[in-house]
Specification:
heterodimer; A: alpha+beta; Rossmann fold; Dna Ligase, domain 1; 3 domains; eight-stranded antiparallel sheet; five-stranded parallel sheet; about 35% helix; B: about 80 residues; OB fold (Dihydrolipoamide Acetyltransferase, E2P)
Chain lengths: ~450, ~80
């Protein structure tokens, strides 16, 4: 039963992206929007639009009952969640299916098991995917903690079992450190969370973030190669590439195979991403998590493979079998994406929502801009600051960096402060060009003043 | 005394978190630079600070209200 009426439960650029994919498949589109988003581009483009609640996301895009009800009321037969909001909420996936509609993504059970750190790690291990060496759960005995640290090797991280967001993390360089820090970590965790349980995990020094795109139909899965997402600020990716640079072919093959093995082991349906930490010095990779949705940076994969990942996930979730074999997925050249955010990079990335003035976007072979802007559009302050993505494709990484630098010069988005200045500086950075980057590179580089305010800049 | 205006558009909060009390109540002393509220803009929380010493006259918009840049959020006397 192919999908005929698709409800888009998201906003911004990804709503536009889903609309285009649906349209290419001849599917009728129904766009959800909050009261603050009645003017957004996807609403203007869609066949139908429906208001799902007030501006605050908690009362609209995150309101499971309101979204499901609107989808039912408009006669949708499928719901695409995009990324963020409810995309990885198993209760939402379940509610959509219980209401008799197709959820464009994996089953609620898959989302649930991959969303839980411990069960995702267990699933990865069961599928033979390497994970960050650690205690495989909480450690209550300090002697056991010392034995584990000895086995996996120092430095090790001590994490509170009940914590989150990096709180209470300590690094022990030696056994003596561990003997001193582990009891402190336990006491602090007990005081903060009422649970003194701790985990021990190996520290991967200056890791790179490399992730593999997969597509699965519930039985069979293929990979669409990997992406390099090591340029991050506050754990948010800012610049992404495909393929990863300077990655030994054997390592690439192992990463991609492990991703396919895990996807098939969990009966994955739709588009998904297996994320790894990569220790370049040791040429070793470790599973960190699986994202059970389309990702922001999917276009770089589309540029090097020629696939339409969003259309494919809609077709597969509509009941088609995966329409290709692994050998059909081939890559050419190198692609780079930068995230354009409405933020002022010269003022600590302060959000800067405003009215879009003159809009000039580059066009041409090997250039793509995914966005939701038009002149006179008031960017609402209630949602994410990402306003678009600039993507380039060229024969080599060096040529792609040159193409990105040129494309950035050709972009004009009046009325807003944007992160274009950051990307121009990155494209000009010798470290970026030489691949001397890792996930802890960007923030110190910014702190060191590499983003000096240019004189006479106009916006 | 200058009123306290929102530096950015977004959602205004009287409290540091839903469980906490409001930053200020009417009659409290306020010092220059002190935080009297938060505005959530594009998932970031921006502190709203007083630009002068004074006595807090009260919030002029509701907790969790949508505000524009330059809107008066509270008065100082």
């Amino acid at each position: 039963m192919a999908i005929q009426r698709l409800f888009i439960a998201n906003r911004g650029e990804i709503a536009v992206r889903i609309l285009r994919a649906a349209r290419s498949l001849g599917i009728h589109t129904i766009q959800a929007h909050s009261e603050a988003d009645a003017d957004m581009l996807a609403v203007r483009m869609a066949d139908e639009a429906v208001c799902i609640g007030p501006a605050q996301a908690a009362k609209s895009y995150l309101n499971v009952d309101a979204v499901v009800q609107a989808a039912k009321d408009t006669g949708a037969d499928a719901v695409h969640p995009g990324y963020g909001f409810l995309a990885e909420n198993p209760a939402f996936a379940q509610a959509v299916e219980e209401a008799g509609m197709i959820f464009v993504g994996p089953s609620a059970d898959t989302i649930r098991s991959m969303g839980d750190k411990v069960s995702a790690r267990q699933a990865a291990q069961a599928a033979g995917v390497p994970v960050v060496p650690g205690s495989d759960g909480r450690v209550d005995d300090l002697d056991v903690a010392a034995q584990i640290a000895e086995r996996i090797g120092y430095p090790v991280m001590i994490k509170a079992a009940a914590g989150g967001g990096g709180r209470g993390i300590r690094i022990a360089q030696t056994a003596a450190d561990l003997a001193k820090l582990a009891p402190q970590a336990r006491q602090e965790a007990q005081a903060a969370f009422g649970d003194g349980g701790i985990y021990i995990e190996k520290v991967i020094p200056q890791p790179r973030h490399i992730e593999v795109q997969i597509l699965g139909d519930g039985t069979r899965a293929v990979h669409c190669f990997e992406r390099e997402c090591s340029l991050q600020r506050r754990r948010q990716k800012v610049w992404e590439e495909a393929p990863a640079f300077d990655l030994p072919e054997r390592t690439r093959a192992a990463m991609c195979k492990a991703a396919v093995d895990l996807a098939e082991a969990v009966g994955y349906r739709g588009a998904g991403t297996i994320e790894y930490l990569y220790d370049a010095a040791a040429d070793t990779f470790y599973f960190i998590e699986m994202n059970t949705r389309i990702q922001v940076e999917h276009p770089v994969t589309e540029m090097i493979t020629g696939l339409d990942l969003v259309a494919l996930m809609i077709r597969i979730c509509g009941g088609e079998a995966l329409p290709m074999a692994q050998g059909d997925v081939v890559r050419t050249g190198h692609a780079i994406e930068v995230r354009l955010n409405a933020e002022d990079p010269h003022r600590k990335f302060m959000p800067f929502p405003g009215v879009v003035g003159t809009l000039r976007l580059p066009e041409g072979d090997g250039i793509r801009v995914d966005h939701f802007l038009y002149e006179g559009y008031q960017i609402p302050p209630f949602y994410d600051s990402m306003i678009g993505k600039l993507i380039v494709h060229a024969d080599t990484r060096a040529a792609a960096i040159d193409a990105m630098a040129a494309a950035l010069e050709a972009v004009e988005i009046g009325g807003l402060k944007t992160t274009i200045a950051l990307h121009k500086a990155l494209a000009a950075s010798p470290d970026v060009r030489a691949g001397r980057i890792h996930t802890q590179w960007l923030e110190p580089w910014l702190d060191a003043g590499n983003l000096a305010e240019p004189t006479g800049e106009t916006t | 005394m200058p009123d306290i205006q929102s530096p950015v558009p977004g959602t205004f909060y009287h409290r540091p978190s839903p469980e906490d009390a409001a930053f200020k109540t009417k009659g409290d002393a306020v010092k220059t630079g002190e935080t009297i509220g938060l505005v959530e803009v594009m998932k970031s929380f921006i502190e709203v600070t007083a630009e002068a010493d004074g006595t807090f006259g009260g919030y002029t918009v509701e907790n969790e209200a949508a505000v524009s840049a330059g809107d008066v959020l509270a008065t100082l006397t």
